[in-house]
Write a structure and sequence with these properties.
- The protein is α+β, with helices and mostly antiparallel strands.
- The protein has helices at 11-35, 42-61, 130-150, 164-179, 186-215, 219-225; strands at 2-9, 66-73, 77-81, 87-91, 95-103, 106-113, 116-121, 155-156.
- The strands form two sheets. The chain has a four-stranded antiparallel sheet. It has a four-stranded mixed sheet with strand order 7-6-5-8, covered by helices on one side.
- The longest helix has 30 residues, at 186-215.
Length: 226
């Protein structure tokens, strides 16, 4: 059994921090208007207050949204010791599918179990996400090895671009795009054709790339299994 320690963030806490900063801006403006109702420097004063107060709140609570997880990984299971000593044991024989998304904001791990779902991620801006990134790669290797040794079907999911919903979305938006060729207003039609065409092209390319990734194992897993 190998033990890992890494930082992670809870999405709810991040949203609450952002909300607190937004609310502090509104409160700061109201307080500034109450304290300096006739001041000629009102616009400048409100601007300074609405910048400084949220900044102080953000800096103070930034580290509060970062938690430490201790994970223990072996051939058949992984155990997470989370915030407030909460233990989450995931046996691979209870695993239906998994997904690791290495996004620009940090790695995100999704585990779908017979008993429910489990999600954990580390935001790059708040955490040192490298240890979590290494853990996710080792976890993928363990799961793929378990699949090969026990002949079980654990699905490795791709990103949102390979879901059925994304395919339907692309089909509908592409249909709407072609309908735009019949719009009478030339400037509007040209704007939709050029701008929409570029985005649709990017989305379709992304869809096929991610679809291919879903079929093929990640390169680092393939090398380990060979």
């Amino acid at each position: 059994m190998k033990e890992y320690q890494f930082q992670y963030t809870i999405q709810r806490d991040l949203l609450l921090l952002i909300l607190a900063c937004f609310v502090s801006i509104l409160i700061s403006i109201f307080i500034g208007m109450a304290l300096f109702p006739e001041s000629k420097q009102m616009p400048l004063t409100l601007t300074v207050i609405s910048i400084i107060v949220p900044f102080i709140i953000f800096r103070y609570f930034k580290n509060k949204v970062v938690n430490i997880c201790i994970a223990k990984l072996n051939k058949t299971s992984v155990e997470f010791e989370l915030k407030d000593s909460i233990i989450k044991l995931v046996n691979f024989n209870d695993l239906i599918s998994y997904k690791v998304y290495y996004s620009t904001k940090g790695p995100i791990l999704y585990l779908k179990l017979n008993s429910g779902r489990f999600k954990i991620f580390a935001h790059n801006y708040y955490c040192n996400s490298d240890p979590f990134n290494d853990f996710c790669k080792d976890l993928e290797i363990k799961i793929e090895n378990y699949k090969a040794e026990n002949k079980v079907d654990i699905i490795r999911e791709g990103s949102i671009f390979v879901t059925k919903g994304m395919l339907y979305f692309l089909i509908v938006t592409t249909s709407i795009y072609f309908i735009s060729f019949f719009i009478e207003t030339n400037s509007l039609r040209i704007a939709i054709e050029i701008g929409g065409g570029i985005y649709l092209f990017i989305f379709w390319i992304k869809y096929f790339i991610e679809k291919n990734k879903k079929i093929d194992k990640p390169s680092f897993i393939a090398k380990k299994l060979l």
